[in-house]
Design goal:
Elements (H helix, E strand, L loop, with lengths): L3 H17 L5 H8 L3 H13 L4 E4 L3 E4 L12 H17 L2 H17 L2 H10 L19 H10 L1 E8 L6 E13 L3 E7 L4 E6 L3 E10 L7 H11 L3 E7 L6 H10 L5 E6 L5 E7 L2 H8 L6 E5 L1 H19 L5
Antiparallel strand pairs: 1-2, 3-4, 3-7, 4-5, 5-6, 8-10, 8-11, 9-10
Helix pairs in contact: 1-3, 2-3, 4-5, 10-11
Length: 327
């Protein structure tokens, strides 16, 4: 049997979950707490016997009686530290309204902490920093919060969007289904102009308007979009042999830091000391621009077409930098 302390902690966490989600199944709870469904049934009965109005929806799961709430439980020091980290991430990686709301929420967390824990956070805070992804962070549009609201309420959004190649601004009416962060924030939305799902970078949105008009929710999710994109783009296998010893340490580190953006799949050391790296990429010319700085340390085993792209880039660089300037 689990200890009484462990069980008490689980009961408190279970009650907290019931207050944060509309419906929870016994299977979900068992997976969450790494216990059997029989243990979950026993815990639910314990809560009921303590006067907690848990409602069992047959064949669906558990929920709390509408309107029932307990005062918020105390945060542990580790939980407060995790929230401090989230506050700093929001301040640099979202937009200004979201950062402001995150700070206000964190102030409420601090107010609920013991004084010793508040002092602990105050001591740690200056030693944790999140750097913005690019210097122009202050000029980012306040798009994240509005788009998140549009996703949640199924509202049509009008985007004024700058094209990547030309900078030309076009107007798009879109139905957003989700946001995600890679190197930049993106919103995936059904574009009414293109009659297809499209991926828009938030830093290219010049302005936006959330309409009062709604749209019919679509079954597609972000995962569906990514799966469809992977099937649409035929990716080519690339095998490289890298002489890592021929690279300066900073350049070798940069290669490992950025390889995932270029379709990295796996790698293995070879008996001769080289590193064999396998990637799957949709554009060989795109990959060539990444590999060119590693000239002298990279050998292309397949496909041979990648060598041609590298030769062409090297020729262009040679012609530009080595041709005497015209007088």
């Amino acid at each position: 049997m689990d200890s009484e302390v462990t069980r008490l902690s689980r009961l408190v966490a279970l009650l907290t979950l019931l207050q944060t989600k509309r419906l929870l199944t016994a299977t979900e709870l068992a997976q969450r707490f790494s216990v059997s469904t029989r243990t979950v049934y026993r815990d639910i009965r314990t809560l009921e016997q303590a006067g907690i109005p848990v409602i069992t929806q047959e064949g669906k799961g558990y929920t709390l009686l509408e309107g029932y709430r307990l005062p918020p439980v105390m945060f542990t020091r580790d939980e407060a530290f995790a929230l401090l980290t989230a506050e700093k991430l929001a301040a640099q990686l979202t937009d200004a309204p979201t950062a402001q709301r995150s700070g206000a929420a964190m102030d409420k967390v601090r107010a609920a902490l013991r004084r010793s824990d508040r002092d602990h956070l105050a001591t740690l805070a200056p030693h944790i920093q999140v750097l913005p992804p690019h210097p122009a962070q202050a000029a980012r549009p306040s798009a994240y919060q509005q788009l998140a609201l549009a996703v949640a309420t199924q509202r049509v959004v009008q985007l004024y969007y700058a094209a990547a190649e030309t900078g030309e601004v076009t107007t798009r009416e879109v139905e957003p289904i989700g946001l995600y962060l890679s190197r930049q924030w993106h919103v995936v939305a059904y574009c009414r102009l293109r009659q297809a799902f499209r991926n828009f970078r938030l830093d290219r949105i010049q302005a936006l308007e959330v309409s009062v008009a709604g749209f019919t929710p679509r079954p597609e999710t972000l995962q569906d979009y990514w799966t469809a994109e992977a099937q649409r783009r035929q990716k080519e296998k690339v095998v490289l042999h890298l002489r890592m010893a021929a690279l300066l340490p900073a350049l070798a580190q940069h290669l490992h830091d950025t390889k995932h953006q270029y379709g990295w799949a796996h790698e293995q050391p070879l008996p001769d000391g080289q590193l064999e790296m396998t990637l799957f990429i949709g554009s060989l010319s795109y990959l060539a621009t990444w590999l060119l700085p590693y000239a002298g340390a990279v050998i292309v085993h397949e496909p041979l077409a990648l060598r041609e792209h590298l030769r062409e880039l090297a020729r262009q660089a040679h012609d530009f930098f080595c041709t005497p300037p015209q007088v």
